Amino acid sequence: MTATQIPIAITQAPPYRVHEGKTAVITDGARSIGASIAQNLASKGADVVLVYLNQTSDEPAASLAAELSKAHNVKALPVRADFSTPEGCSKIVDAVEGDMPPNAQSGRPQVDILVNCAAVFHAAPLEAVGVADFHKIYSPLLPEDAKKAISIWYPLTPLSGIREWDSDEQKETADKYGGRAGCAEEIAGIVGMICSPESGWMTGCLASANGGQWMAS
């Protein structure tokens, strides 16, 4: 073996509970896609923290936590917190440190998997979106402006054409691939795959879960 060769062990298929001893935090984890992701990760052995925002989700979150704990023998903890605020984030961290089992390797509680399912959406025409509404959506995602904002491509902007319709290729692709909307379990399966140890060499990637299509009307 030369100095440039990297030995790679031939391994068998990983055990089903690949996340045993890990803690996963799922925002908006009490309903819909977030709940399906929590189900997927818990079935693989992960202890899960179900973060949700409103009091109306108290019962669904508690019910899901009890269901996951019983079905998969994991710790499932519902936490009502607004993770778009520093106080909400601190509450989530405190819950992990105070109530979740320690990591199997480090011996202390920690967040091993973070799935951000929650998002703010303001359903209104653009002219009806106020400054406060804009910052409520924008600030949690981009709290600071980019420091390197100059792009060499900006002179080409006036030469680019305006397109406000779906291309023929997009419409054909929508009919050809998938042909339907995906379900929550299918999205959860992709998240579970990306979180698995076998995806450890994947980083900085955009994984599309769209059935091979761009949705076009």
TrEMBL record:
Does this entry carry the keyword Oxidoreductase? yes
Instruction: Provide an example Pfam family for this protein.
Output: adh_short
Does the keyword field hold tRNA processing? no
Please list which residues make up the signal peptide.
none
Question: Which SUPFAM superfamilies did the record assign?
Answer: NAD(P)-binding Rossmann-fold domains
- Residue ranges annotated as coiled coil are none
Question: One GO molecular function term?
Answer: oxidoreductase activity, acting on CH-OH group of donors
Family per record: Belongs to the short-chain dehydrogenases/reductases (SDR) family.
Protein name (record): L-xylulose reductase
Q: Which organism is this entry from?
A: Colletotrichum orbiculare (strain 104-T / ATCC 96160 / CBS 514.97 / LARS 414 / MAFF 240422) (Cucumber anthracnose fungus)
